[in-house]
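hey
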């Protein structure tokens, strides 16, 4: 958009920038959660989950924005519908050269739910 203004001044006439959907998404002013999880689950042969350790690494983009809040929200619901007596949660948010992160479809909980359910699916698959 800055380049369009520059070109318009150089040419001395209005210039229109037309971008397709993909270009708009790539050059947008925000991105959704880019979060990586590492989950360790201790369980018995009968499927009883004894403990869970979850680590989250979050790419907040160029500015912290809401990312720290999104990482803190799952604390209240980290075990989901499961009965887990011992849970450890460690979250780290880093700033990078990407656009700022914004909430997309749920404020911080959806990526965490997906990670937990994927881990539980792996436990079930292991147990047969």
């Amino acid at each position: 958009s800055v380049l369009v203004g520059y070109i318009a001044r150089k040419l001395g006439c209005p210039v229109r920038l037309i971008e397709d959907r993909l270009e708009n998404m790539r050059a947008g002013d925000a991105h959704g959660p880019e979060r990586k999880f590492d989950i360790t689950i201790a369980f018995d042969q009968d499927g009883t989950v004894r403990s869970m350790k979850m680590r989250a690494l979050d790419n907040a983009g160029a500015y912290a924005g809401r990312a720290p809040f999104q990482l803190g929200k799952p604390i209240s619901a980290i075990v989901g519908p499961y009965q887990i007596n011992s849970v450890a949660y460690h979250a780290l948010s880093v700033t990078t050269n990407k656009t700022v992160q914004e909430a997309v479809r749920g404020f911080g909980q959806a990526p965490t739910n997906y990670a937990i359910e994927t881990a539980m699916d792996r436990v079930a698959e292991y147990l047969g």
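The CA atoms of residues 56 and 91 lie 5 Å apart. The helical segments are 2-11, 21-26, 67-72, 109-127.
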